[in-house]
Structure to design on (237 residues):
């Protein structure tokens, strides 16, 4: 069964790599400025205080204070942290980096890119795997769609994102309300740019209700393909 209902994308989640990969994986030099900078060459510990500003190529990170241990490769910057690279911005109270690979943003982290916004209590990113996860709860807002879930994972190299637990998609523009246990977004051309809703999947638009074990939302032609036993309730207009 196919039903012309919706155009939804989770692709914005993939923009997280624009910010975090630049800092975690790049070997380019980093310029550091602050009101005071102290460095203990024996312990390999650097402490910067007041108006901290770090610049690496076209990425800029600012905060109140920062600490870095060159031996453990652990970094901590806190106090109104802001990371900007091109049209992507990450805001958080604290950003921690481990082994120049694992980045953790906590304290109301908000990632914006263009007109889209992703937020949750914590954002973890692993540069070597090009993988990010937002846990606790996660919310993605675009120009006309809001997606919430208990967890959102992004696999950048695969152009794939997974939202799990109490998935809820709302679009006032398209008069759409959809829920499921899980949503998987495939952005690659081979996968036709689709979102697959599984587990108690239900989509409502203009009073019409479509339910099924699996609902596949194709982004290009704006149709839904239903797998397994399904039910369509049409409300006369």
């Amino acid at each position: 069964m196919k039903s012309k209902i919706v155009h939804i994308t989770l692709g914005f989640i993939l923009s997280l790599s624009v910010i975090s990969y630049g800092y975690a994986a790049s070997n380019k030099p980093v310029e550091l400025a602050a009101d005071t900078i102290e460095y203990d060459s024996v312990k390999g510990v650097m402490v910067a205080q007041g108006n901290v500003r770090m610049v690496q190529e076209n990425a800029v990170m600012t905060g109140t204070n920062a600490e870095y241990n060159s031996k453990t490769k652990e970094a901590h910057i806190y106090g109104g942290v802001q990371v900007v690279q091109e049209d992507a911005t990450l805001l958080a109270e604290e950003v921690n980096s481990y082994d120049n690979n694992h980045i953790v943003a906590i304290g109301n982290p908000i990632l914006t890119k263009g007109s889209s916004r992703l937020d949750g209590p914590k954002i973890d990113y692993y540069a070597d795997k090009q993988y990010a996860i937002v846990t606790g709860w996660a919310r993605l807002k675009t120009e006309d769609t809001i997606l919430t879930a208990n967890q959102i994972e992004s696999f950048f190299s695969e152009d794939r994102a997974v939202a799990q637990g109490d998935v809820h998609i709302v679009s006032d523009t398209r008069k759409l309300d959809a829920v499921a246990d899980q949503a998987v977004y495939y952005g690659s051309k081979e996968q036709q740019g689709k979102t697959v809703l599984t587990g108690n999947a239900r989509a409502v638009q203009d009073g019409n209700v479509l339910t099924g074990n699996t609902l596949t939302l194709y982004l290009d032609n704006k149709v839904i393909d239903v797998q397994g036993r399904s039910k369509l309730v049409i409300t006369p207009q």
